[in-house]
Give the backbone structure.
Amino acid sequence: MGGSPMFILSEDSQRTQGDDAQSSNISAGKAISEAVRTTLGPRGMDKMLVADGDVVITNDGATILQEMEIEHPAANMLVEVAQTQEEEVGDGTTTASVLAGELLSKAEELLEDDVHPTTIVEGYHEASSLAREAIDDLVLDGDLDAEDLITVAESSMTGKGTGDVAAGPLAETVVDAVDHVRTEDGAIDRDSITIHAQVGSSSSATDLIEGVIVDEEPVHDNMPRSVADASIAVVDGDLDLSESNIDAEYNVNNVDQLNAAIESEEEDLRSQAQSVVDLGADVLFASGDVEDRVASYLAKDGILAIDGVDDLGAIISATGATRASAVEELETDELGNADSISVETYGDDDLTFIEGGAAAKAVTVFARGGTEHVVDELERSIRDALDVVTAAIERGGVVPGAGATEIVIADYVRDHAAGVEGRKQLAVEAFADAVDVLPRTLAANTGMDPIDALVDLRAAYENETLSGILSGGQSGEVADPLEAGVLDPAAVKREAVDSATEAATMIVRIDDVIAAN
């Protein structure tokens, strides 16, 4: 049929097809990988991200990619890889991003050699299954003891922002926190661990609080700032004048009526304060406001009251208190208990510490730092360490770190590539070559020659000596990560392989990009 061409897209739409689309997407993915590559490992560098006057300094892959506000759709797929890695296991975001970028680079070479995208995708998925087998074979036997977990936490934090304190002491704090919330069946109640970051001291002042911290102060200056063996009432509402359910107007014609109205209000407020006293509560936490006159009555009775509390759930979890919408609804047996409640001043801030609660499974890592940037990065490092220790306990143990596991994965995948038929074998081999980027990057960031380091790692493995890239002095060395105490959760490695493979294969399959304004 002849005639004029049919246009199905709007005039403002842009379309990129075939090789151009693949090249554009792969280039965008590789650019994301390069953006975080220099942050990998104990000698990884930081990035300074500036937006609207706000400054973030970090070497955390997920944070970097999130703050970069990336618009390219293919590049955003790698950002999602980092986010998924962070959500699932809490660490390994840079590893996943760097591996995804290298998988795309190897895929680009295969496309130039006329290997079909579907063949590459099938080969990569088969290789990722082999990689998981290699990881499973490397998992160290036996239960993890406290020393192993400290090693895992320390490995996670090494090279990250920990202020003026080494990763070791912080790792011990992390493991103590995890042990505190471990249930009888060995599971970890990760939600019962919170981190409270506070500027105003060195990182070495970071401590573990067996309880929770509330970022609020007493509602009245004359209230006590510390209470021992505290009985705690929790109210999810206000302590204020009662409101009528109907709209009504009151006409006041003389002073006596005005005084009666004022006295009625006072009696209402006095009654609410007296209800707290009658309960036997020493401390009151409220999500709403405590009216000034109620606060004054409570202060006279020596009761500490904190209002505007956002997270009543944490207090309930720590103290065993029962939540009520009004203080009149509480019974004495619904009060919580804590060994101590104290209000401490840090700079311009007052913090309320609730320690040793009756149900005290909740713990708080009180992270300190001299500046906002230091304390933010320290908080990220501690959060990652908590997540990796949890993953190591609950999701399949630990494997050697420092790039040693990647050397084994690459060798395992290459050995099995020969059994793969057709051109798919090329994709499997390319996957193995891509995995080598991780020890090569570690070596480069440590100051070693990446090619020489890779050759030495392979030679050591062929001689049945498992080795990795360890940082030492002004450079690095090829040595046994187990002897050096460098361990990574197996779950982090598995998730990095799966996430990177998924993102790379998704991008490789795209041959048409339609952008509509």
